[in-house]
Structure prediction request, 113 residues.
Amino acid sequence: MVFALVAGLGLVMTCSDAQAAFLRWASTPVKTSSVATCFQFAQHALSRKGFASIRKAGSEVTGSKSGAYVAITCVKTAPNATAIVMVISDNDSAATNARDEVIQTIKGVVQID
Prediction:
């Protein structure tokens, strides 16, 4: 009985300690029809804008900067692929700024053959 009460109190304390997180997202067509190239553009955009811990895993490219975590995925659309940028942060301005700078950068990348 005491254990159940202590466990229940711990659950209430955990729930009451939750903080708000801000999720911001946007999508943009990129200057390629290739999803694989879109992922390369995503890595380039994060690197160019100074994001850290950049990784390509499965169907996303991720990185972080100034308390914002960014995940980018690419989908096949016609005529060009589309990059979808999602950002989560405890700070609304950090989430919004990261989303905007990544979107502006990724939509401007051009592949030179």
In short: The radius of gyration is 18 Å. DSSP finds three helices and five strands in the chain.
